[in-house]
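Researcher: Hi, I'm a grad student and pretty new to this. My advisor asked me to get structures for two proteins we've been looking at. I'm not sure of the right format, so I'll just paste the first sequence and hope you can take it from there.
Model: That works fine. Here's the first sequence with its structure tokens right after it:
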Amino acid sequence: MNRVGGLCYASIGENRSMSTEAGPAPKRGRLTARRPRDMIISLAILLVPIGLIFVGWRFLMGDQDVNPVDFSETVGEAERAGLPVVEPDGLSGDWVPISHSVDEEKGAVTLRIGYLTPDEAGLQLVESDAKPDAVIDAALGEESPTKTGSTEVAGREWQTYTTADGHSAFVSTDDDMTIAVVGDAASRELKEFTAALD
């Protein structure tokens, strides 16, 4: 009986051993089937907080006001140097001046004032009594801006250009100086700005 019992026990042990060896196979199959899903879940766990941080950053940045600069002293300096400055008049408060400078080089005076437009694009006003070609090269870039036509805005004739980097520009030249308005703003904003120059 003991031997029979032992054989029986051994047979049961072998069955258990076989079942133990056979058991993991389905489990491995289940793990393999879940692997892509687990990867997606892991990625989602990583990306969700990153997305929340990005949205929060955009929200905070969107709430920050851009502080306008006072360019009156710079304009005064340009006028004292002999430049007949033309300033925009009648623009809404959504046009924000953000930078300004005046340079005197080789007897020429150049005034630059940068603006943030109502659509949050960038625009620069350049006024200079240097030679027109030199002003255009400096304001629009030396990489051959493309002349696209001409237009009259508020009684002033403007030549229109597209710069090498895709920005639009309006340029007006008379006997006293050259005015350039250039930036990544839409054409309607450029026209609105040039119409305000008095």
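Researcher: Oh nice, that was easy. Here's the second one.
Model: And its structure:
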Amino acid sequence: MLLETKVEEGINHECKLCNQMFDSPAKLLCHLIEHSFEGMGGTFKCPVCFTVFVQANKLQQHIFAVHGQEDKIYDCSQCPQKFFFQTELQTFTEYPLQSSMGA
């Protein structure tokens, strides 16, 4: 039902911020991380421990390996869903039916 439950590979996953398509939710999340850090000099800082990475996918790997659900800092005001990045929350709240229904 929530955005994170849709993890099927090969299904088109669209960035609701720029309409770019991805073939996996992991690739879409990495892309959303890049949106989060646009105009910040090409570095990606962990929102939890502030470790800096030069690639978005390395930050993504770090977050999944080191930080858990309890470390997510952006809360949805409509449901219990939480996110590491504001762009994830923005996409979720602007397009809740599409995110939860898999469209």
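Researcher: Is there anything I should tell my advisor about the second?
Model: You could mention this: Residues 25-36 form the longest helix (12 residues).
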